[in-house]
Amino acid sequence: MAERFTTPSVQGEMYDDLDKEQKEIVDDYNKKIENGIYKTVEAVCICGQREHTKITEIDRYGFWHPVALCEACGLMYANPRPVWEVLEEFYKSGDYRKVYGGEESEEEKYDEHLNNAKLIIMEVTELIKIRELKTVFEFGCGGGWNLILFERLGMEVTGCDFDSTLIELGRKRGLDLQLGSFELLENKKYDVIILSHVVEHFDNFFRDMKKIREAMSKNGILYIALPNAAAFGCNALQNVHNYYFKRSHLDFFMKFLEFKKLNYGYTFECQDFFAIYDMSDDISMKLLGSDKEFFKKFLKRIGILK
Q1: Candidate from 14-28, 82-96, 99-113, 174-188 with smallest mean pLDDT
Q2: 3-state DSSP assignment of residue 151
């Protein structure tokens, strides 16, 4: 396995910030990939294009993580990548939090998480009041820190995550948190759905986002927060990130899925961005800006453009 970034802008040994246990997690993961215990799969870009340029083979801590730049639309994506069952196991084991979560426990950081959650509530409170929205569901809710503020507004809140330790952390605070994922949405509708640093983990963007769309109420809204690939650096690389979005990419693919953008903004000195959507049947090229020519190939391929 590679031990150094191959990109000219970043050089140095991996593991600089990891303790012994974290290094063992990285080594064990890489050995299972190398020996075929963890299965991998070739991936294509969301736009359907296969031609790409390889960016790197490893993430910021030395995990095996090949990342490609799509030659058609410019989206960065993991290719090849572990099959979903491997990543699901990585989340459930708690190894993800052990490596990427820092030295403090999530219990110790709970108040900090609550402060960050205020960024979400500030952006959607007016819409909640105007539309009289009542229910909230959050994917990848962690310990439920984002949901607590919605509960204080008198809303009915539910969340899900793969990490049982974090689920229990939220349940201790009286939150309705469930272990699982999309299966929890079957035959249910929610007024507000939160995907805060979740979409980049999706296994299949269109398939997974359609499930989200089906779970939204007619008047509902969707809040998405993502790392900003326009401010990309190698420190943003994580082995569980399957996609690295610029805002123009997210806007276009969401538009194709019949979502209408209501608002957007940037946080943490533009390292992250957020967008708020509801339902629309308008497919437009206007949001693409300088990326327009790249997406023409995609539109022709799916039959929208001749």
Answers
A1: 99-113
A2: helix
